[in-house]
């Protein structure tokens, strides 16, 4: 399944970064690529304000925008889950 997901992300969606098994968690930890995916499907209209940086403030800003966009379509991303995603690259 992971192979198929990478194929979808890399070939069909065409993200700005190539996703592989080594960097998957790290590349999604700051929320930038999640925002990019939502943007490509018209769900993240403020994607221009996202930054692809790894500092804590950037991660919080990116995920705050993601949470708001998901709430607009009645989806909930609980903060404990956001924390797990943001910490993924640290393997905490």
TrEMBL record:
Entry GO terms, CC: cytoplasm
Domain CH-like: 9-88
Protein name (Swiss-Prot/TrEMBL): CH-like domain-containing protein
Pfam families: CH_2
Superkingdom of source: Eukaryota
Protein source organism: Hypsibius exemplaris
Gene3D superfamilies: Calponin-like domain (1.10.418.10)
